[in-house]
Amino acid sequence: MKNRLFIYLLGSCLLLVVNFSVSGVQASLFEELDFHSSAQEPYEIYNEEDELLSIMARVIQVGDELIAFDNKHYRVTKVEGRKAIATYDGKHDIEPLQLSMVSSIPVQEEGDINDIVIAIYHTHSAESYVPSDGAESIPGDGGIFDVGDVFAEALEGQNFTVIHDVTAHEPHDSQAYNRSRRTAVDILRQEPSVLIDVHRDGIPDPEYYREEIDGELATQIRLVVGRQNQNMESNLEFAKHIKAAGNEVHQGIVREIFIAQGNYNQDLAPRAVLIEVGTHTNTKEEAQVGAKLFAEIMPAVMGVTPGAPSAGGPPTQGSDWSTIGWILALTVIGIVAFLVISTGSWEGALNKGKQFVTKEWANYMGGIRRNRLKDNGKDDNKE
Fold it and tell me: Could you tell me if 197 and 93 lie in one domain?
């Protein structure tokens, strides 16, 4: 009996280990599908009318989704070679919202923009921009760090508190997200409001991302949300909010949202997103302009203005007293109306009010005296 129980427990433990191992391998494999390298041909997504919707240097899986620039939602139903077919799944009515109105995203607890902490890190830290850096990959010192620096500086210019972690996570292999996960966990100990993993794409055509935005030549940005984690809904809602608010401030800065197979460490936070700032054939300077413009949309994203209290934060002291004043006024009006109706006249209401106040005050004072006498009696007994 004991041997049988031991074998049962051992088998259960082995099943759990295998299950977690397979899950981890699957996550790593799927996340490695964002290869971001010119060594492989990019994937293309077409609609059912054979119109090109998107190009990306990541393996596309059936079930992946795309919210295009015009907010049309597509779902990948077939993949043949490097061509994916996506069916139309409706159009999102994405409007800029105050963050406090987005139900699945926790409201910022602090009221000042300086209390909003935005964290930046780089899973693929070798990613670079060929025209400016001379190579598409520079281990330990990728040009993506320079893009992150500009992004961080621009956020600080908006009065956000910024964490920019420049830990390298080479090599670019199936364990890259496992290594960057340790970085993300360390960052989250500082309780940031937003967690952003900054990448660049690996498609060969720089024109796909190149755009003149408000008079500046910049790269557009793709938002990527992993669909294999419990925070998928809140992270997607946050990404849609970024797209809406972003294109309200700098029309065209956010190109699209891709909902991909994988986790991308987004299970760690409800406001986690991966961004791709251009591709390796764009200049780094274009990408840095894109990052700067993206930083300038963040006050709108977070429902604040630079140096002003957060819309989702606690009300000011003045608004607190104003609210209390209204509550008291409405209470008094309600009591007066009740007395007038119950007595049938203003005079009756006034007499009833005087009687109530006089009686209650007398009872209150009498209660205090009785409690004092009881307390004194207890003290005498103790002595």
Answer: yes
